[in-house]
Amino acid sequence: MQEKPFFHGWWISIYAFFTFGLAVGIPYYGMPFFYTYYTKAFGWSRSDITFGFPIAALLTLWVGPLLVHRFQPRQMLLIGSTCTALAFVGFGTMGSSLLIYNALWVLYMVGYIFSGPIAHQVLTANWFKSQRGKAMAVVYLGVGVFGGISSKYIAQPLTEALGFQNALLAIGAMLLLIWPITFFLIRDRPSDVGLFPDGATVAHAETKAAPAQWGDIVRESSFWLLLVGSACSIGSIGSINQHMKFIFQDQGFKDPKVLDTLFSNTLLCILFSSIAGRIVMGYLADRYSKKVVMSVTYLMVAGTIPLVTAVSPSSPEIVYVFAILFGFGMGADYMLIPLMAAEKFGVNSLARVMAIILPTDTIGQTWFPWIVSKMQEQGGYPVALKFVFLLSAIGALAILLLPNKKAASDPLAALAKATGD
Fold this sequence. Notes:
The protein has 18 helices and no strands. By secondary structure, it is mostly helical. The chain has one domain (9-414): Up-down Bundle (Growth Hormone, Chain: A). The longest helix is centred in the middle third of the chain and has 31 residues, at 132-162. The radius of gyration is 21 Å and the shape is globular. 56% of the residues are buried.
């Protein structure tokens, strides 16, 4: 009897754990640590600081739909990690010019689009079918682990030892670790090494299906509900992540060292709790309705947002209740979007669908925090956070309205039949 070939898929997931954590976990979650340093060093306002990310998202909106689907995951990782590394070198050497600061965010955003979620989602979807939820959970754990340590064990100690600008340079250099992992260990799809998804002995019908056309995708109600739901939920999560340190500062944590430590500890707790969210919800998504699992996750995010306003020097322990619940929902939130997209449109259309959804989500993730900055300047965080809660509630409602089955339009019905979903 011929011995079954060794399946490399789980090793690919482990490698992607590291590349995803380096590409997104450290730079995205670590950057807000430096915001108070920008204020002190350059005299920038909160809206100045949080404007770079959204304007960059707007200016790079075309990158995903026009460019990303033309590249394989490994190519995306190499291009994206280089851009992100150069952006952090720029952050570490820039002066007080907001124009340069905003331009560096554009470079960062290109890096995020190429080496962030899309590359890792497509890579995982290529290697897995029946166990896609668990595999995606493993990959997304990298963001949780590296994001969790980004402030407490990377940004804060580097800043204390070297100063905040040299700390940014060191983070930029750290991102280049993605290159050897990508070059020597990762393969784009199982066929590159003579295998099939999940280690099957024959190709699944899903891998043979032609990608859906743009027009067919945008005519589906599922697409728009997923786009609106994910953008609102991720926008609310991004608002909390980007403003959390400022919120703590306004609620009475004035000492810079105490504030740094509180923020670092909270972020660590959020991101490590997100690991549990990814594991549990990834497991459930392989066994139960992804719509139900996703709806529960979005409702959890909405329900925890009011807790952040209760954190104060007289009751600092509340921050850990918030962090655990918020982190659990946040972790599953990001991971479930590509799983739902793959289920609705097929794996061969995933890059095309996510090339629209991801930039839109990024618009929400970046512009909503800036809107929160402007609302805070007018009425304080109590008013601004009510807006954030409303956003998260709208996101949950949109996911609840997703149809249980694929719409019956002819092109996608044919795709559904071809993929066996």
